């Protein structure tokens, strides 16, 4: 039987930028092995599968990289919500809720932006700056000593690495052997490096994300990692306040410029995290 799919560019300001996503919209009877094979065939950083009709207000969705299933990822959440709104949902709902392995994740619309409310952040270990310098192929003096290297998770544990400037960011030369050794016994496989030195004057941060252990050498736009970054910026009061409203550019080194919008606010004992951006349709087709 044929199966319908959509291709979209997420966190993109125009077509053929941002992060590519394939969404299989009728995956009800696919098993895990078949989904993994399709994700490997698509070979995007993630492919998503809508595995049934809406129930209890949420759409069941599974997310796969080319090599693994993951419980949460940001750009697949945003992109899948856009496809569901356009192709599957009745009417034109202001909010679409995805039922993911991490729980229900709502995605709302504000003008031409979609915004996802991520799970409350969990702050893990603080790691040695020199270890991450070795993994990233940088000198220790290129990391910012005023802020910690820290594991943060809003569903997918991520190592947040503060750098001094964009020369350090663009100079990253990932040491795969050092990376493999470093993450081998860690749940956190994503490394998200950032600096306060963006290319565009209206932006606040430039970032890069690496996750070879998940089959993604480098990602052009990473909603989950930037949600972790938003929580980190809030906790560290990086901009002088726990309230964060920031624009993050990513993907320039891959020729796919991306723009992610971050919000973070203290919420009782936790931090409320939102990540927003645009989703641009690219193609529709059938799997044979």
Architecture overview:
This protein has six helices and 18 strands. The protein is α+β, with helices and mostly antiparallel strands and 288 residues long. The chain folds into two domains: 3-118 and 277-287, Roll (Diaminopimelate Epimerase, Chain A, domain 1), CATH 3.10.310; 122-275, Diaminopimelate Epimerase, Chain A, domain 1 (Roll), CATH 3.10.310. The protein has an 18-stranded mixed β-sheet that branches. Helix 2 (74-88) crosses helix 6. It is globular and about 55 Å long. The model has no long low-confidence stretch (mean pLDDT 96).
SSE arrangement:
Elements: E1 3-10, E2 19-24, H1 32-42, E3 47-50, E4 59-64, E5 69-70, H2 74-88, E6 95-100, E7 103-110, E8 113-117, E9 122-127, H3 129-136, E10 149-153, E11 158-162, H4 166-170, H5 176-183, E12 190-195, E13 205-211, E14 216-219, H6 223-235, E15 244-250, E16 258-267, E17 270-277, E18 279-287
Parallel strand pairs: 2-3, 4-6, 11-12, 13-15
Antiparallel strand pairs: 1-2, 1-18, 3-4, 4-5, 6-7, 7-8, 8-17, 9-10, 10-11, 12-13, 13-14, 15-16, 16-17
Helix pairs in contact: 2-6, 3-5
């Amino acid at each position: 039987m044929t199966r319908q799919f959509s291709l979209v560019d997420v966190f993109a300001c125009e077509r053929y930028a941002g992060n590519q996503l394939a969404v299989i919209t009728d995956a009800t009877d696919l098993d895990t092995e078949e989904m993994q094979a399709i994700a490997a065939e698509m070979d995007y950083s993630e492919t998503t599968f809508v595995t049934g009709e809406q129930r209890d207000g949420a759409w069941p969705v599974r997310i796969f990289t080319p090599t693994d299933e993951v419980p949460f990822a940001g750009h697949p959440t945003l992109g899948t919500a856009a496809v569901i709104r356009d192709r599957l949902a009745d009417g034109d709902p202001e909010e679409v809720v995805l039922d993911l392995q991490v729980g229900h994740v709502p995605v709302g619309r504000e003008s031409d932006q979609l915004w996802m409310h991520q799970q409350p952040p969990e702050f893990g270990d603080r790691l040695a700056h020199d270890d991450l310098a070795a993994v990233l192929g940088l000198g220790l003096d290129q990391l910012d000593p005023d802020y910690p290297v820290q594991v943060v998770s809003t569903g997918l544990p991520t190592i947040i690495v503060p750098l001094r400037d964009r020369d350090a960011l663009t100079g990253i030369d990932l040491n795969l052997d050092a990376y493999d050794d470093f993450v081998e016994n860690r749940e956190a496989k994503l490394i998200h490096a950032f600096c306060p030195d963006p290319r565009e004057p209206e932006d606040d941060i430039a970032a890069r994300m690496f996750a070879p252990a998940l089959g993604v050498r480098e990602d052009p736009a990473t909603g989950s990692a930037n949600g972790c970054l938003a929580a980190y910026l809030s906790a560290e009061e990086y901009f002088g306040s726990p309230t964060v409203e920031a624009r993050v550019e990513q993907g320039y080194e891959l020729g796919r410029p991306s723009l992610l919008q971050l919000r973070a606010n203290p919420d009782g004992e936790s931090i409320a995290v939102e990540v927003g951006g645009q989703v641009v349709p690219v193609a529709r087709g059938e799997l044979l």
